[in-house]
Write a structure and sequence with these properties.
The chain is an alpha/beta fold. The chain is 39% helix and 20% strand. It has helices spanning 2-27, 37-44, 77-89, 105-115, 149-162, and strands at residues 56-61, 69-74, 96-101, 125-131, 136-142, 166-171. The strands form two sheets. A three-stranded mixed beta sheet has the order 1-2-3. It has a three-stranded mixed beta sheet with strand order 4-5-6. The longest helix is centred in the N-terminal third of the chain and has 26 residues, at 2-27. It starts with a helix and ends in a 15-residue tail after the last strand.
């Protein structure tokens, strides 16, 4: 019985050590690992939430296709190093364009997550999202709440905490929430 327990323990340890080595090897991607910038972008989005490097401020298309994609990189040393990393990882350098921004997408997502709980307060918030091309978090407030004290306090607080990382607009509409419905023949 003790032999079987020992064999099972050894088998389990070998499996754990193999998984650890495999994970370390996937972190060091080889030069040209991705054919195009779209493949790299899809790689970052393959998890939920997406795992962008901290130097990425956003990714978008200027022409409606995925070739080339514009990668917004932070305007600092990390952004410059990130540009070299991206060019190293993709085989087709013409598949990417670069621009500089102030804030990383990870920071903007964090700011958006910090604002989200305010929707439960009934103070007129109707829209929230990260605007990649504008490099900010967009917050829409229904105009009927513009002069409500709690809404005004929130606006002042957000401007003091986040500055131009948050763009606040007032609207007379509400955002319609929809869900995709998948029909099946049954």
């Amino acid at each position: 019985m003790k032999k079987w327990m020992l064999i099972c323990m050894i088998w389990l340890m070998c499996g754990v050590l193999t998984l650890t080595v495999g994970a370390a090897q996937t972190d060091a991607l080889p030069d040209g690992h991705f054919a195009t910038s779209d493949e790299l972008y899809q790689y970052w989005n393959s998890t939920y939430p997406p795992q962008y490097p901290d130097y990425v401020g956003g990714v978008w298309t200027d022409n409606g296709t995925t070739y080339p994609l514009t990668f917004a990189l932070t305007d600092d040393a990390a952004g410059q190093a990130g540009k070299q990393e991206i060019l190293r990882l993709i085989a087709d350098d013409a598949s990417v364009k670069f621009t500089e921004v102030s804030y990383s997408r990870n920071l903007l997502t964090q700011v958006m997550d910090e604002i989200s709980p305010y929707f439960d307060r009934g103070i007129g918030l109707v829209g929230l999202g990260v605007y990649d091309m504008e490099n900010c978090v967009g917050l829409e407030i229904h105009q009927d709440y513009k002069n409500v004290a709690e809404t005004q306090d929130l606006v002042r607080d957000l401007k003091a905490r986040y500055g131009d990382a948050v763009k606040i607009t007032y609207t007379d509409g509400y955002v319609a929430m929809t869900e995709d419905v998948i029909a099946t023949d049954g």
